[in-house]
Amino acid sequence: MLYRGLKSPFERVLAAALILVLAPVLLLCAFAVFLDGGGPVLYRQTRVGRHGTPFRILKFRTMCVDAERRVPPAGPSVLFKLPRDPRVTRIGRLLRRYSLDELPQLLNVLRGQMSLVGPRPALSTEVARYPSQMHRRLDVRPGMTGLWQVSGRSDLPWDEAVRLDLHYVEHRSFALDARILLRTPAAVLTGDGAY
Questions:
Q1: For residues 33 and 153, what is the distance between their CA atoms, to the nearest angstrom?
Q2: Is the Cβ–Cβ distance between 169 and 106 less than 8 Å?
Q3: In b/e form, how buried is each residue of 101-124, taking b as 16+ CB within 10 angstroms?
Q4: Are 165 and 140 spatial neighbours (Cβ–Cβ below 8 Å)?
Q5: Measured between alpha carbons, how far is 126 from 135 in angstroms, rounded to an integer?
Q6: 26 partner at 20 to 30 Å CA-CA among 8, 35, 106, 109?
Q7: Three-state DSSP class for 55?
Q8: Higher confidence at residue 157 or residue 49?
Q9: Which tens digit of pLDDT belongs to each residue from 153-194?
Q10: 143 forms bridges with which residues in the sheet?
Q11: Nearest-10 crossing angle of helices 23-35, 2-21
Q12: In this structure, are residues 126 and 78 in contact, taking their beta carbons and an 8 Å threshold?
């Protein structure tokens, strides 16, 4: 299929171009994270990629250095996020609101671990709790943006997030990717569901 053969090479080229164009923004974000309490600028976390292959996702660090030791108990939802997480730093709130913390994932796209468009990259603990039909979302590379991200992000109920991810997997195409990419700037600027 033409789409499947061209998607990854095209996105890698686009990711490389975006890294060059956004280099000043990346440097500014890194400097702001460093000034806001020191510690590492980048946060690395193991996520589950295509066909269940683990990889290390890159983000600008938005939480205090010991955040992983201070994780509250998981709730009934597979997806864990708090609207007002006390572990998030001052600059981290700003980076999250406008999804600037996710810009280092362009390197994950360049490495072929992620796509520009695809389902949200999941934690192994989330995948372990998936119902059987949800494993289909692992048929594709996770994305920096996707239907979930442009449709409300963390404000969506879990069932709706599942439906959107599976819809993308079953109907993915250049046209759908283009529509999602075109909707992404507006979703980022409004900051809805970003926390």
A1: 23
A2: no
A3: bbbbbbbbbbebbbbbbbbbbbbe
A4: no
A5: 11
A6: 8
A7: strand
A8: 49
A9: 667 787 788 889 899 999 999 999 999 999 999 888 876 555
A10: 115
A11: 60
A12: yes
42 Cβ contact list (under 8 Å, min separation 6): 30, 58, 59, 60, 61, 104
Inter-residue contact 57 to 121 (CB < 8 Å): yes
Q: What is the pLDDT of residue 77?
A: 46
The 8-class DSSP code of residue 4 comes to H
pTM to 2 decimal places = 0.84
Q: Which two tokens stand for residue 190?
A: 């409004």
The single residue listed with the structure tokens 């439906």 is 163
Q: Report residue 51 CA to chain centroid gap.
A: 17
Q: Cα separations (Å) of 186 from 12, 114, 146, 180?
A: 23, 22, 13, 11
User: Which of 115, 121, 110, 100 has the alpha carbon at shortest distance from 177?
Assistant: 115
Distance separating alpha carbons of residues 82 and 92, to the nearest angstrom = 14
Q: What is the pLDDT of residues 2-28, one digit of tens each?
A: 888 899 999 999 999 999 999 999 999
Q: What is the DSSP string of 118-182?
A: SSPPBPHHHHHT--GGGGGGGGS--EEE-HHHHTTGGGS-HHHHHHHHHHHHHH--HHHHHHHHH
